[in-house]
Amino acid sequence: MKLVDKLEKILYKVKNPVRYIGNEWNMVKKDWAEDKIKVALAFPDLYEIGMSHLGLKLLYHLLNEEEDIICERTYAPWIDMEELMREEGIPLFSLENKKAISEFDIFGFTLQYEMSYTNIINMLDLAGLPLYSKDRDEKYPLVIGGGSIVFNPEPIAAFFDIFFIGEAEDGVVELVRKYRELKDKALKKEEILFELSQIPGVYVPSLYDVSYDENGRIKAIKPELPGVKEKIQRQVVSNLDQAYYPTKMIMPYMNVVHDRAVIEIARGCTRGCRFCAAGISYRPVRERSKETIIRLADEILRNTGYDEISLTSLSTMDYSDVADLVKTMARRYEKDKVSISLPSLRVDRFSVNLAREVQRVRKTGLTFAPEAGTQRLRDVINKGVQEEDLYDAVQAAFEEGWSTIKLYFMIGLPTETMDDIAGIVDLAKRVLQIGEEVRKNTSRQMKKIQVNVSVSTFVPKAFTPFQWVAMDSKEVIEEKQKYLKEHLTDRGLSFSWNNPDLSLLEGVFSRGDRRLAPVIESAWRKGARFDGWGELFAIDKWEAAFRENQLDMSSYLRARELDELLPWDHIDVGVNKKFLRKEYKAAHAGELTRDCRQVGCTGCAICFDLDVKMELYRGDVNVN
Amino acid sequence: MLIRAEFEIKEVLRYLSHLELMTIFRRAFRRANLPLAYSKGFNPHILFSMGQPLKVGMMGWKEYFDLKLTQEMEIEEFINRVNGELPSGIRINKAASIPEDSKALMATINSAVYIFKMVFTQKMKADEELLNSFLAEKEIIVRRERVKKGDIEIDIRPMIQRAEIIEPGKWLFQVDCSSERNLRPEEISRALVDFFPALEYIPISNIVREGLYVRVGNELYSPLDEKIVGR
Question: Given an 8 Å threshold on Cβ–Cβ distance, is A303 in contact with B17?
Fold first, then answer.
C-alpha cells in the first residue's frame, strides 16, 4: 500500500489532522526527479510551532529557489499520530510529496530548544534511521543540525553527522551541493565528513575527541585528524539588506502561534543583557533599510492575503527611526485594513505610544519585561531599565486603555537574595496601584485592572557572561516560588511560574557535554517525548535515565571555574571569551555596560573576529 | 453586491476545521484583490458568512458562502479570480448575485443530504430490505454528545426526512439541518451501527455531505435557486 493510502486510513482518527496533510498555500511541491538533491527540513516540535518559525521558512524557500534542489518539510507527530504511524508501519514522511525521509539525501533539523532533544531522536527513529551518527553509513541521509541561534550542541552531538554553526543563508546551498557531489563520487561516510569539515561553519562532531578528568570535567577537545580546524567559526550574513528573504511564504492551515506576515527588520541586539544567549550570538546588529522592508511587505501581503504584519527582531523598538517606519507602514496599508504589530515592546512610554498608534487590533494586554525586581539586580544583569521607566510605561498603557499588563521576571539570577524576590512583589503591586488610580480617575469605561506576573527560572546558557554561574537548586527555586505564591495574592494580581524540574533539566542540557547522549536515549526509550509540553513532561523518566548512566544532574548545574575548559569551547561565536569574562566580573560588581550603538565599541570583538560590521539604516544612531 | 457561491471541498482539505476554512477563504479573497466590504468599528472584518459547518474529515460537494462586495462584478470573473487563489481541493462551482437583504445562509438552509458507505462483515439481505427495517423503527434513540452540558439521549427518527439506496453499499439520508433542528451525521452512523450488528464502524471519511438544501414542503431547493433568493 502506498504511503498516502495508509495515511488516509489513519488521519481521521487523530487530533488536528491538518498537521499532517501539507498542501498549504505557497507550498513548493516539485516533481520527484532522480537527479535532484533532496533535502528534508525537520522541526522537532508540532506543526503549529514549527510553522511559526521564521528560520525554517526562510531556509525552505531559499533552497527551493534552486532548480537542482527539492526541499520538503516534516514536523514531530503528536503522540496519537506517532502511535498510529508505528502501528500501520508508516515512516516519518515529508508533507509535500509524502516521501519517506529515508529517500532524502539530507535530513536537516532546526534546533531551537533543549527540551526538543527527545523529539529529535524520536524523529530519527520514526524515519527508520539508526540514532547514532556512527551507526549510519553513507546510504542513510546526512543528518544536519542548525539554527541561527548558536547553542551548545554537545549533548546531541553523537546523533548528528554535522552541524552548521551560525546563519545559513550564505552557505547552505553550497553545502548541500557539495554533499551531493561527494555522495555521487561514491565516497565512504568518513571521507565525506572529512571533506565537509573543510567548509566554513561546518562542525563534524565525530572528528573531535573530548577527554574528561576523574571529576568529569573536560580535559581536552582536540581534532582527531590533521587538517580538521581547531575552532568552528559562526557564519554571519553581512549586508542583511541584500540578503535573501522569502516573499511567497508558505501559510499554515491551523491557527498557529504567529499566523501573520513576518518581516525581519533587523538581526542582532547589542543591549547586552547578560543572561541572554540570543543577545550574544546574533551579533552584530544589522538592519534592513526602510525601502527594502516596505518592498518586502508589499510582496508578502500580495502573496499571502494576511491582514496583519509583524515587524520582528530581537528588539524591534531599537530599529533606527522605528517611529517613522511603523507610521509609514500603518498609513500605507490602512486602506487594505492591514494592522502592524510590534512583537517586543521596550519598557518605556515611547514604545507604548507607538504601539497604540499603529496597532489596529486591540490586544487584550501588553507585556513588559523588567526581568528582575530590584534596581541592584537589574544592574547585575545589565538590563538597562529604571524603575521609573516601568512606571511611566505602564501609566501610559493604562491611560491608553489597556487594562491588562503582563510583567515578565526571572528568579534564580546570579547574586539574587530574598530581597530581590520581595522586589518583584513590590513592583507588581505598584503597577496594579497605578492602574487602579488611572481607572478611578478616567471618564471612559475601563475593565478591571489585571496584572499578570509571569516568573520563569533563570537557566545559565552557553556563550553568555553567565555561562559560569551556578543554577539554583530545586529547593531554592521552590522556596522563591512559594514566597511569590504567598505574596502575589491581591485581587487583580495573578502569578504563573515554570515547573522547576523542567528548568533544571534545561539547565543540564544548556551547559551539558557529550556524556548526556545516552541519557537522552534512555529517557526516550522510557517514553519521554515533547518534554517542553507540561502534560507530557515526566521527570521520573529522566531521573531514571540519569541513574542508569551513572550521571548526576547536579554536577551540570554547578558554577564553572573561569579558566575551566567548557564543552563548547571549540565553537567560536565571534564574541570573545575575554569579553564574556569581563562582563561576568562587571555583573558581580554591579557595573553596567552600555549599548555599543550609543557609546562606541565595548570590546566584544565580534566585528573583528568575524570581519563584519554593524549595519544601521542610514548609519544613524537611534536616539528617541 | 451580495454574492452567494456554491463550492466543493474534497481531498485532504476535508480535514480543515470550519474556522480554518473561513480563514482560507478570507485570505483568498484578499489575494484575489476583490472589492471587499468590511464591517464598521475598531476591528473591521470581511462581511462573509458560511452555511452549516461541515464535520472535520468529511467531503462536501455543495457547500455555500455569502460575500459582500462594494462594487459590482461579473460572476464569471469572481469565480475565476477566487478559484485562482484557492488550494486544490476547494473549488467554487457556481455563484449568483442575490438581493442585499437576503436571509443569511444559516437561517435559510434546513436540510442536508449525506451519503454513507456501508460495509457489512457478513452476507446480508438486499440493501432495500435492510434500510426499510431501519426506517420502520418508531423511534431511534442515540446519545447526543454535548460539550459542557452533558450528553443526552435523543430520538433521531423524526429528523430523517428521506432515505434511499443509491447503489449497493451506498445509502443516502436526507435529514434536518438547521440551527433549530440538526441531525449530525455521526449520530446517524451510530444508530446504524447499533441497529446492524454486522455493520462495520463507519469512519467519517466514508461519509459525504452531498449537499445543503432548503426544503419547502416536500421539495428540495438549492440555496442558489431563484425560488429561494428570488432574483
Answer: no
What DSSP element (H or E) covers A309? strand A308-312
Angle between helices A172-184 and A54-64 (to 10 degrees): 50
Q: How many domains does chain A have?
A: 2
Q: What is the CATH number of the domain that holds A122?
A: 3.40.50.280
By Cβ distance, the residue of A18, A302, A305 closest to B20 is A18
Taking an 8 Å cut-off on Cβ atoms, the answer to whether A22 and B12 are in contact is yes
pLDDT-above-90 percentage for chain A: 82
- Structural domain boundaries enclosing A408: 362-466+473-498
Task: Flag if B26 and A305 touch (Cβ within 8 Å).
Answer: yes
Last residue of a domain, one of A233, A258, A292: A233
Question: Is residue A117 within 8 Å of residue A144, measured between CB atoms?
Answer: no
CA distance A301 to chain B (A): 8
Of A233, A259, A284, the position where a domain reaches its end is A233
Give me the CATH number covering residue A400.
3.30.750
Cβ neighbors of A60 (< 8 A, separation 6 or more) are: A28, A41, A71, A73, A246, A250
B28/A253 Cβ within 8 A: no
**Number of CB pairs, chain A paired with chain B, less than 8 A apart:** 63
Mean pLDDT of all residues in A507-517: 97
Nearest chain B residue to A7 by CA distance is: B12
**How many Cα atoms sit within 13 Å of A348 on the Cβ side?**
10
Q: What is the tens place of the pLDDT at every residue in B96-152?
A: 999 999 999 999 999 999 999 999 988 888 899 999 999 999 999 999 988 888 899
C-alpha cell at A363: 490586544
Q: Judge if A222 and A368 occupy the same domain.
A: no
Cα A72–Cα A167–Cα A41 angle in degrees, nearest 5: 15
The alpha-carbon gap from B28 to the nearest alpha carbon of chain A, in Å, equals 7
Chain A residues with beta carbon closer than 8 angstroms to that of B20: 18, 253-255
pLDDT on residue A34 = 87
B141 half-sphere exposure, CB direction, 13 A CA radius: 3
Nearest-Cα residue of chain A relative to residue B43: A361
Q: With contact defined as beta carbons under 8 Å apart, do A197 and A229 qualify?
A: yes
Residue A272 lies inside a defined structural domain of this protein: no
Nearest CB to A23; choose among B12, B17, B57: B12
**From the list B15, B29, B42, which residue is nearest A21 (CB)?**
B15
Which chain A positions have a beta carbon within 8 Å of B11's beta carbon? 23
B57 to A17: CB separation less than 8 angstroms, yes or no: yes
Q: Which residues of B touch A302 (CB under 8 A)?
A: 31
Asked whether the beta carbons of A233 and A200 are under 8 A apart, the reply is yes
Instruction: Identify whether the C-beta of residue B189 lies closer than 8 Å to the C-beta of residue B181.
Output: no
Residue of higher predicted confidence among B125 and A521 = A521
Integer CA distances (angstroms), A472 to A277, A398, A544, A610, B49, in order: 19, 35, 22, 35, 54
What pLDDT does residue A360 have?
63
User: What is the structure's pLDDT at A426?
Assistant: 97
Residues of B in contact with A251 (CB under 8 A): 27
Which chain A residues are Cβ-neighbours of B17 within 8 angstroms? 18
- pLDDT recorded at residue A149: 66
Q: Provide the pLDDT for residue A624.
A: 35
Measured between beta carbons, which residues in chain A are less than 8 angstroms from residue B44? 337
Per-residue pLDDT tens digits for A248-299: 999 998 876 678 899 999 999 989 999 999 999 899 999 999 999 999 999 9
Whether residue A58 lies inside any domain: the answer is yes
- Supply the pTM of this predicted model: 0.94
B19 chain-A contacts, CB cut-off 8 A: 255
What mean pLDDT is reported for chain A? 93
Extended beta strands in A414-542, E state:
450-457, 493-497
Reported as a single tens digit per residue, the pLDDT across A28-80 is 999 999 899 999 999 999 999 999 999 999 999 999 999 999 999 999 999 99
pLDDT digits (tens, 9 = 90+) for A135-175: 999 999 999 999 866 689 999 999 999 999 999 998 999 99
